[in-house]
Structures are given as C-alpha cells and as structure tokens.
Task: structure prediction
Amino acid sequence: MKKVIITGATGMVGKGILLECLDHNEISEVLSIGRNNIGMDHPKLKELVHKDFSDFSLVKNQLKDYDACYYSLGISAAGLTEEAYTTISHDYTLALANILFENNPHMTFNYVSGEGTDSSEKGRMMWARVKGKTENDLLKIGFKQATMFRPGMIIPLKGIKSRTKSYQFMYDYLMWFVKLIKVMAPNSVVNTTQIGLAMINSMLKGYDEKVLKPKDIIALSR
Result:
C-alpha cells in the first residue's frame, strides 16, 4: 500500500488527483498540504495546514515515509510580476521538493506544469519561462522518478469546478467546443480522472518520458 502527498487539492486538477487517490485500492493514505482545510472527510485523508510555502523545515518530520508527491499548486500569471510569479510557481515548489528529497529520495515527484512550457527558459512568455525553470530544477534534484505533466486543455469530471473565474466561464459556456476538439483530436484533451490515474500509475508502473504531453497522460492513465 502506498502513501502520497498532494498540494493544490482545492484546485481543479488537484481535486481530480485527490478523488482518484482516495478511490484507489493501492493507496492507503493521502496527505493534503495547503494553507487551509479542504473541507472533506475521508478515512484515507490527512491534512497538513501550512501557511508558509517558502519553508517546510518546521514540518519536515511530518513528511517522512511517503511514496509520491503530486504537486498541483498553481496560480495564473495574469497581473503578476515575474518576481512574484517565480516565488509562487518556482520557489514554493522547490522548497517542498527539496525537503521531500531529504526525507524520501526514492519517491516519485510529479509536477503539474502546462502545455507551452519553455524548457529553454529563454522564451518571450514569462509564465512559460518560469514553468520551464521549475521543471528543469525539479529534474536536477535526483528523485528516483520526477515527471512533469503538461496537460493542455482539461475536461473536469465528477462535479469538479475551476477556482479561476475565466477558466470556469470557458467550461460553462464553451465546453461543447472543448469536447468537439476531443472528438476531432482525441490525444489533445485530457480529463481530471485521466490526470489522477496517470499520476498514480507513474508511481506504480513508472514511465519512460520525463515530460508528459496529453497523449502520454492518456496512455499512462490506462
């Protein structure tokens, strides 16, 4: 039986991962790390409320003996300076990843990035450069397995809603178009269940690629 950590469980992707983990027979414990309680009760679920994502040293002993971390904490870059966005998207991620590596070097660390992420770190799009640096730095840490998820367009299932108003607007009024794209190009769109199952299977089965595009996520979810 496996024990996993999830961040961003109140978000659309994070909640999708959480629901799949709670339902999975090979997962015995799910630790959700966040600034606030997620408001859910389940016998497998534990919560760690932690306000300062720049420093996990005070809770280090609570983060031992885990098999995987599914990091889905994210924020839109709209209205943020590069410095502010880097702090949240890069520095917070690496702060947790480095503590987890000290405790559990043989764990799987999966990071939810985004389609269009810039691995060169030199492109014109600020968010893509920052995400690219985050991916690159995670891959350098030395985890037994680190996988970068770039899901692109996502269909939320099981009643999941996006906390980002612009995204939810799209899901409310343009989901027919997303589903049409899914029919025309099946490997270009994923759903929240597929992301969750792919996360779990990456821990249980492994995967050759380090950066997963939608077609990889779909394949790994099966």
